[in-house]
Structure to design on (977 residues):
């Protein structure tokens, strides 16, 4: 007999599962006969299944309403809903708890996901590397993210076998105008013609291969197209940069599929720079060079040959300056989290804080789960009778487990739906509050997997134990009234302790993190950052008129001092080799090129020697200062070093005399130790004009500066920053994280309170009779509140004992990442207050709940049996 | 209980069951409908109507013999009850009386 004489097993199973048992034999027989005798057509299977599915109709299906066989289903939804409704307050507490926990977890998931998928959308992402220069200051090596123009060509040329493609990009800023619309833009990228082919940035219009082919082509983001051209089609239209260069729009970019490490709104052809000498100079800076290498092994191979490559092109210069730099390759996916790279235009994230946030979100989720477990266990004694009766009536244990699991699932389902709705509702707010750009992409495969895993995790952690516990009750014991209450008290208390320990940890951590941030913002930096305006000389017009500009500024009554410098504190400080006469060793110091007004603008006093003098003409071209760190580095005393001649080999052997030593002021971020610095008087390097104004009439001063500027550079708007603002921005990422942290520790403490609230409710209910008798015997309301509160307060005290040392340890570790940090011992009281706060919050929560029980009429509670 | 009025498909099924006698089980009923009036009706649909007729007490059923092509499972054989036969008869008579009252002219027109 051919094997297709038997109908598919699944079809018969389906009938057996779903149809009335008294009909099954007949139906199966009919289907079987139909399959064997009535089936000659080409759509055999299809026709058969049509018959099978057609059999599933009300007249044949099992009835769920009034039959025990409903138990064959996973759980009985009506029964579950009825149970949830009966214990309304605990159900609501559980649902709220889960919802909050899930909202927090979902947001953090999306945040972490967006951080971890930076640049993940590039097709050849795993083959792309960035060329990074390596240098060192006094023995500490560091990477420099930028390279110069000739690298790309030389790399492609020297490694034709290994490097399949190269591209360059350079971030720019400037005045962009289209017709009447003029804006200062700082997300401009100058890039090679193959940029869009090399990376996978999506284009709405334009061919990635040819869109940047012409030397004057530019590609806009869709937002920029809207900003400059409104609803018109921008393709083929002109835009001007810095009133000088004209570009034709040849393409429009699509919405980025994820974050990328170089933020840009404009991509213009880098061809424009070919006319400049600096673009062809090996020693220039500012470009990002990317190469494509087919496999990691080949990349290692190339890396090994890079020292030779550098010798080939830099050998002579290395010998002349005594300073060597090297080249290495950084995989594209590592760029974002490698924030050690200096002089980098790439955006950076902090992988450590991603881990921390991940742990925080898990902690919050567990608090929510523990709440549920706790409440379920507490409730289990009330439901013990139900279980007993069910068991006596012959319900199998397996079914009871399924029923309780079903209840957990139902609660979780409500919470998930609520959480998703809340997330959708709140995320614009969330983005705004934390200064991030989250996109809730629910249908992404990863997101769905995450959700499935999340549900499974929550269900198992919070559903399994209560289900097993409840279904294991012995009916005879229950019916006798013996509930065995003592058994799970330890577990419940343990869970409360863990919840509060987590919350106390988060409270303490939040406070100390914000203290550290405040410390960094308020620390005396060794210079005066108030009322200091940094004007960027970003165009030719103002650069040509620099001297006049500064002279005019000095004439303004609201201006106290004006200086010109290569980089303001917190800004760019290059490393230069210094040769000190009479000392054999070379020194590498950070450098700022400036004029004689530097110290007076920043309000720095000299420690030894003298400051630059505006009256000595020779100072402007012949003097330099060093900081204390640099002095220590040289090993000389202040008296010895003053008057020494210094030469700078990488700057054409520029000669200077050291005239003084300044204290270690913080010219870089407080995350790093102060480095040795040389303050070199010079006339040609200043890209910034820094103005100290009268703080009492700041507004007036700004108007005056703007007018002065406009006279000399009518075509370009003034671009300025207040020094204190720009210094604060150095810690922007920290601030953002501190805000996230405090929000989520708030949620965690709220959830922990919700849990303790539920437990107190239960405790008050269960002891109702006892409390009634106590009241009859003369106990006051306070005594009763105290009685119930006591057991919880103890738990919280234990929790703080656990949390405080752990928090102490981890926060000291975290602070270790900062060169300048608060002393954790000075903040011992934060730990005490954190613990006390948790106790007080717990006390208030419990008292709030117990109050009702304490003032209730004892006759009410004793009367009922 | 629902009214004793017979639906068109119910009437058809009762007639088929009557014709088939001892052979009146699902597959044969299905085939008979297909052969006699050329209608393909799924077994599920037939079952629903048969069940309804049983509920109206027009049909009764009992499990009959098993065959090999049924995988050894018995078949349910339907049989008309007295009430069923009476209902069929009533329908037939009512139709006949109605037909008798239709004027010949009208009849011709309806075929035009």
């Amino acid at each position: 007999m051919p094997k297709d004489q038997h109908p598919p097993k699944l079809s018969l199973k389906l009938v057996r599962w779903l149809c009335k048992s008294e009909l099954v034999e007949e139906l199966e027989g009919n289907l079987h006969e139909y399959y064997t005798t009535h089936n000659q057509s080409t759509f055999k299977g299809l026709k058969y299944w049509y018959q099978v599915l057609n059999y599933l109709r009300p007249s044949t299906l099992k009835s769920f309403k009034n039959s025990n066989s409903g138990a064959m289903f996973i759980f009985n939804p009506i029964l579950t809903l009825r149970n949830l409704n009966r214990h309304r307050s605990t159900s609501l507490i559980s649902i709220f708890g889960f919802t909050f926990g899930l909202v927090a977890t979902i947001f953090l998931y999306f945040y972490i996901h967006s951080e971890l998928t930076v640049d993940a959308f590039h097709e050849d992402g795993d083959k792309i590397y960035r060329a990074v220069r390596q240098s060192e200051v006094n023995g500490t090596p560091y990477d420099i993210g930028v390279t110069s123009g000739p690298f790309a060509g030389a790399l492609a040329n020297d490694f034709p076998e290994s490097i399949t493609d190269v591209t360059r990009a350079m971030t720019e800023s400037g005045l962009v105008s289209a017709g009447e619309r003029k804006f200062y833009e700082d997300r401009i990228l100058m890039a090679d013609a193959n940029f869009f082919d090399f990376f996978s940035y999506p284009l709405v219009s334009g061919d990635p291969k040819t869109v940047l082919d012409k030397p004057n082509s530019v590609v806009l983001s869709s937002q920029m197209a809207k900003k400059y051209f409104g609803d018109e089609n921008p393709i083929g239209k002109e835009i001007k940069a810095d009133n000088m260069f004209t570009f034709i729009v040849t393409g429009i970019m699509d919405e980025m599929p994820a974050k990328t490490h170089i933020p840009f709104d404009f991509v213009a052809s880098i061809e424009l720079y070919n006319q400049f000498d600096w673009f062809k100079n090996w020693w220039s800076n500012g470009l990002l060079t990317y190469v494509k290498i087919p496999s990691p092994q080949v990349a290692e191979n190339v890396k090994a040959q890079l020292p030779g490559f550098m010798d080939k092109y830099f050998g002579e210069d290395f010998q002349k300056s005594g300073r060597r730099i090297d080249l290495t390759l950084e995989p594209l996916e590592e760029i974002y989290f490698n924030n050690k790279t200096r002089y980098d235009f790439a955006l950076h994230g902090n992988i450590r804080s991603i881990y921390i946030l991940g742990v925080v979100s898990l902690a919050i989720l567990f608090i929510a789960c523990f709440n549920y477990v706790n409440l379920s266990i507490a409730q289990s004694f009330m439901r013990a009778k139900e279980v007993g009766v069910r068991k006596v009536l012959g319900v199998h244990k397996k079914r009871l487990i399924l029923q309780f699991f079903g209840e957990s699932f139902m609660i979780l389902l409500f919470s998930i739906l609520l959480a998703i709705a809340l997330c959708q509702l709140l995320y614009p707010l969330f983005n705004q509050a934390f200064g991030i750009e989250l996109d809730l992409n629910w249908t992404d495969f990863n997101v769905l997997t995450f959700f499935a895993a999340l549900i499974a995790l929550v269900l198992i952690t919070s559903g399994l134990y209560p289900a097993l516990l409840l279904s294991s009750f012995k009916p005879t014991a229950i019916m006798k009234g013996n509930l065995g209450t003592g058994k799970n008290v330890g577990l419940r208390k343990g869970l409360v302790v863990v919840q509060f320990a987590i919350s106390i940890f988060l409270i303490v951590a939040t406070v100390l993190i914000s203290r550290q941030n405040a410390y960094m913002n308020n620390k005396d930096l060794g210079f005066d950052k108030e009322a200091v305006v940094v004007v960027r000389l970003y165009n030719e017009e103002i650069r040509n008129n620099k001297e006049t500009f500064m002279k005019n500024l000095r004439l303004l009554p609201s201006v106290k001092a004006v200086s010109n410098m290569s980089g303001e504190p917190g800004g760019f400080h290059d490393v230069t080799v210094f040769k000190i006469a009479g000392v054999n060793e070379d020194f590498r110091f950070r450098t700022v090129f400036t004029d004689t007004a530097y110290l007076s603008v920043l309000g720095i006093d000299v420690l030894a020697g003298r400051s630059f003098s505006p009256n000595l003409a020779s100072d402007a071209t012949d003097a330099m200062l060093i900081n204390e760190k640099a002095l220590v580095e040289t090993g000389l005393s202040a008296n010895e070093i003053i008057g020494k001649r210094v030469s700078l080999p990488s700057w054409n052997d520029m000669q200077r005399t050291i005239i003084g030593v300044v204290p270690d002021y913080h010219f870089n971020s407080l995350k790093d130790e102060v480095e040795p610095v040389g303050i070199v008087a010079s006339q040609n390097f200043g890209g910034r004009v820094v103005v100290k104004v009268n703080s009492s009439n700041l507004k007036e001063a700004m108007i005056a500066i703007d007018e002065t500027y406009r006279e000399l550079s009518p075509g370009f708007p003034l671009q300025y920053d207040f020094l204190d603002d720009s210094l604060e921005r150095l810690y922007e990422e920290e601030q953002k994280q501190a805000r996230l942290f405090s929000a989520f520790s708030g949620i965690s403490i709220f959830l922990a309170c919700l849990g303790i609230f539920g437990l107190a409710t239960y405790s008050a209910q269960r002891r109702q009779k006892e409390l009634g008798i106590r009241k009859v015997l003369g106990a006051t309301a306070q005594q009763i509140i105290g009685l119930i509160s006591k057991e919880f307060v103890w738990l919280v005290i234990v929790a703080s004992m656990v949390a405080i040392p752990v928090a102490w340890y981890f926060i000291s570790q975290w602070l270790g990442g900062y060169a300048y940090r608060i002393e954790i011992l000075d903040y011992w009281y934060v730990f005490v207050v954190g613990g006390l706060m948790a106790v007080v919050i717990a006390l208030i929560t419990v008292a709030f709940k117990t109050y009702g029980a304490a003032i209730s009429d004892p006759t009410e509670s004793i009367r009922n049996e | 209980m629902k009214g004793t009025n017979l639906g068109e498909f119910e009437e058809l099924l009762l007639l088929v069951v009557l014709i088939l006698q001892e052979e009146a089980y699902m597959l044969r009923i299905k085939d008979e409908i297909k052969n006699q009036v050329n209608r393909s009706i799924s077994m599920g649909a037939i079952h629903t109507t048969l069940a309804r007729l049983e509920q109206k007490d027009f049909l009764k059923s009992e499990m009959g013999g098993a065959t090999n092509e049924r995988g050894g499972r018995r078949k349910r054989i339907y049989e008309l009850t007295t009430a069923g036969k009476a209902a069929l008869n009533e329908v037939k008579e009512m139709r006949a009386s109605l037909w008798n009252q239709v004027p010949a002219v009208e009849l011709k027109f309806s075929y035009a």
User: Anything to note?
Assistant: Helices of chain B lie at 8-20, 26-37, 43-55, 82-101, 104-111. Chain B has a mean pLDDT of 85.
